[in-house]
Design a protein that fits this description.
Elements (H helix, E strand, L loop, with lengths): L1 E6 L5 E7 L7 E5 L10 H4 L7 E4 L17 H15 L5 E6 L1 H12 L1 H7 E7 L15 H5 L1 H14 L9 H12 L6 H13 L2 H13 L14 E6 L7 H10 L4 E5 L6 H4 L1 H11 L9
Parallel strand pairs: 3-4, 3-5, 5-6, 6-7, 7-8
Antiparallel strand pairs: 1-2, 2-4
Helix pairs in contact: 2-3, 3-4, 6-9, 7-8
Length: about 290
C-alpha cells in the first residue's frame, strides 16, 4: 500500500492511500461519509484482496487538512475527487463506491464533471446515501420530536463552529452510545461502534459544521440522470436514521437499471454491519464491461 499526500488546486492537503496491482483492469475508488475517514472502508477492503483501490480522506476529515473557509461543500469535494482521479489514477476504468456523503460526492461529480464520468466510470455503488431532502430528516423519531430535528441542526452546527481546537472533545467510549443509536442497526459489534466514534473525534469541527449545512442543501436527484446506463447498485439499511430507505428508493427510481438491495435490521454503517454483502456487490461491479471511451 502506498500512502501519500495530494495537494488540491486551492492548496488543501489530502491524505490518500493507493494499493493493489498497477496493471489491474479496473481501479476501485472508495469515498467515505461525513465525520468518517478512509478507514471506514476497512471491513470491505479486507474482503477484496488483490484489488487495485484508492481511498482518501475528505478535507476536514481524518488525516487531511481542514477545509479552508467556504470550501466545506459537496461541490468542492466533488472537485477534489476529480482532481485526485486525474492526478493519481489518470488512466483506465473506475468503479466508484460512496457511503453517505461519499455517495453525494459521486452525484456531484457526475453533475460537475460529466465528461470524466462518461469516459471512465464503469460502475457505481451508492451505499446508505441520499440525493436530497436531507433537511427533512426526523432521525426516526416520532411526532414532535421528529419534526423538531431540522431545528436542532443549526444549533449543532453553531457548537461545532465555535470549537477552537482541531478535534472534538471526548473519547470513543463516551460517544459510543450515541453513535450506536444514530448510526447502527441491531446487533452492532462494540468494536465497530468505537471505531466509527473514533473517526468522528478525528474530524475537524468547523469543517464538519460546514459540511453539515452543505448536506442539508444537497439536491442532486436530477444529476443522477448522468449515470443512467452505468451499472449501479443502491444499498439501504432498514433502520438507517441518517439516509432512510425512502431516500435510497429515490436513487433507484432515477437509475432504473440499478440493483436495489435492502438489508433488514441494518442501520447507516453498512460497510461495517454488512461488510460481506457490500464487498460482494462491489466485486460484481468490478467485472462490468469497460466504458467505450477508456
Amino acid at each position: 500500500m502506498s500512502a501519500r499526500e495530494f495537494v488540491t488546486a486551492d492548496g488543501t492537503r489530502l491524505h490518500l492511500e493507493l494499493s493493489g496491482p498497477p496493471d489491474a483492469a479496473v481501479t476501485l475508488v472508495l469515498v467515505h461519509g461525513w465525520t468518517q475517514d478512509l478507514t471506514c472502508w476497512e471491513p470491505v477492503v479486507q474482503r477484496l484482496p488483490g484489488q487495485r483501490l484508492l481511498r482518501y480522506d475528505h478535507r476536514g476529515h481524518g488525516r487531511s487538512a481542514p477545509a479552508r473557509p467556504g470550501t466545506a461543500t459537496i461541490e468542492q469535494i466533488a472537485d477534489d475527487l476529480a482532481e485526485v482521479l486525474e492526478a493519481v489514477v489518470p488512466d483506465g476504468p473506475l468503479v466508484l463506491a460512496g457511503h453517505s456523503m461519499g455517495g453525494m460526492t459521486m452525484m456531484a461529480l457526475a453533475e460537475r464533471h460529466p465528461e470524466l464520468v462518461s469516459r471512465r466510470v464503469a460502475g457505481v455503488a451508492f451505499v446508505a446515501t441520499s440525493s436530497g431532502e436531507m433537511n427533512r430528516l426526523t432521525l426516526g423519531l416520532p411526532g414532535l420530536a421528529g419534526r423538531g430535528v431540522p431545528r436542532v441542526e443549526p444549533r449543532v452546527r453553531s457548537l461545532l463552529e465555535r470549537r477552537r481546537k482541531d478535534t472534538l472533545p471526548g473519547s470513543p467510549g463516551f460517544l459510543a452510545p450515541f453513535t450506536r443509536w444514530l448510526a447502527f442497526g441491531r446487533g452492532a459489534a462494540r468494536a465497530d461502534v468505537l471505531d466509527v466514534a473514533a473517526q468522528a473525534l478525528r474530524a475537524h469541527p468547523a469543517s464538519i459544521a460546514g459540511f453539515l449545512e452543505a448536506i442539508t442543501r444537497h439536491d442532486r436527484r436530477l444529476a443522477l440522470a448522468a449515470l443512467r446506463g452505468t451499472p449501479a447498485v443502491v444499498l439501504a439499511g432498514q433502520l438507517d436514521r441518517l439516509c432512510p430507505v425512502p431516500h435510497a428508493r429515490v436513487i433507484a427510481e432515477e437509475l432504473p437499471d440499478a440493483d436495489f438491495v435492502y438489508f433488514p435490521r441494518a442501520g447507516h454503517m453498512l460497510p461495517y454491519e454488512r461488510a460481506d454483502e457490500v464487498a460482494a456487490r462491489i466485486r460484481a461491479l468490478l467485472k462490468v464491461p469497460v466504458p467505450a471511451g477508456v
